[in-house]
Description:
Helix content is 10%, strand content 59%. The protein has 1 helix and 9 strands; from the N terminus they run αβββββββββ. It has an 8-stranded antiparallel beta barrel. The termini are far apart.
Amino acid sequence: MKKVFIILMLLFFVTTVYARVPKRPLVQIGPRASLYISSIRLGMGAEVVFNPLRFIGVRFDMVEVSFGEGGTFFSLNEGLLYQGCGGSLDVLYYLPIRGLQPYVHSGFGLFTDGDEANSFFIRGGMGLDFVMNKQTTFFAESGIMIIDPGAGDTDFIFRLGGGAKFGILK
Length: 170
């Protein structure tokens, strides 16, 4: 096991040194559309991505309107698919691969639903950026959300998303 770990670490360092990850704008903002596949829902919203390092980004879902089974919900950086207050935060790790712009995302969020107890969700998945120019990027991603609604059973929601990111600060 120790030898496998050493080989994987060497491979990681070699690919990190060899691959050229493009410099991204410091702050990106853009529209996104999401399809939630547990109870079929469609969401449209906006996100902000802060890229402090070449390999790391932080994403905030700023606003979303989702509609489908169960009604229509409007949220301002809240627990998706639920009415309540809270927030969500994702960390993006851009993989160092030449020619492609893949990334892995993982995050968490908190929300309250009226009189019920506080709840949380975690999510993760993979995505792919398509760079059009230095300021415009299109993306597609997939992921899973694991939601603990407090008193009820844990929910698993699969999410497919896509949209654009526009650089506003270099």
